[in-house]
Amino acid sequence: MGNNADKDLKHNYPIHHLRHQVEPSPFYCACRNGDMETVQLMLHTISYQDLNRLELIGNTPLHAASFYGHKEIVRLLLHEHGCDRSQRNRYGSTAGEDDVSDNYVSS
């Protein structure tokens, strides 16, 4: 049985994108929780790399917003801040592929 690093390599995403902390970042939590006000405030202070950062939990903020049905946050991340829609999570899925509620904003 391999360790998580082995799994990370198999899913072909950059390991350096994983956060070195146990808890998700405040930005990830705001996207997951649908906290538009906090997301908007934080977008002025985070880097493009942090916008697309793969959290230790295995998803990006875009994955979280999409999965939990926060369509306006998804739209903000994609269309106003150029979030990387092709970023795959640790399971090999994009945010659009993981959206179970049909809230993902395409193109």
Short précis:
By secondary structure, the protein is mainly α.
Task: Describe this entry's structure for a reader.
- The chain is 45% helix and 0% strand.
- Helix 2 packs parallel to helix 5.
- With 107 residues, the protein is mainly alpha-helical.
- Mean pLDDT is 80; it is low at 1-19.
- It has 7 helices and no strands.
- It is globular and about 30 Å long.
- It has one domain: Serine Threonine Protein Phosphatase 5, Tetratricopeptide repeat (Alpha Horseshoe), CATH 1.25.40.
Features:
107 residues; mainly alpha; Serine Threonine Protein Phosphatase 5, Tetratricopeptide repeat; 7 helices; 45% helix; 0% strand
CATH homologous superfamily name? Ankyrin repeat-containing domain
Name of the CATH architecture: Alpha Horseshoe
Tell me the count of domains: 1
User: Which band does the percent of strand residues land in?
Assistant: under 5%
Q: What assembly state would you assign to the polypeptide chains in this entry?
A: single chain
Gap between N and C termini: 40 Å
SSE ordering: HHHHHHH
Give start-end ranges of low-pLDDT stretches: 1-19
CATH class designation: Mainly Alpha
Radius of gyration: 13 Å
Instruction: Please bin the fraction of helical residues.
Output: 40-55%
Count of DSSP strands: 0
Q: What's the overall average pLDDT, rounded?
A: 80
**Strand pairing plus helix content: what structural class?**
mainly alpha
If you consult CATH, what is the topology? Serine Threonine Protein Phosphatase 5, Tetratricopeptide repeat
Topology:
Blueprint: H1 4-10, H2 26-33, H3 36-43, H4 48-51, H5 61-67, H6 71-80, H7 95-98
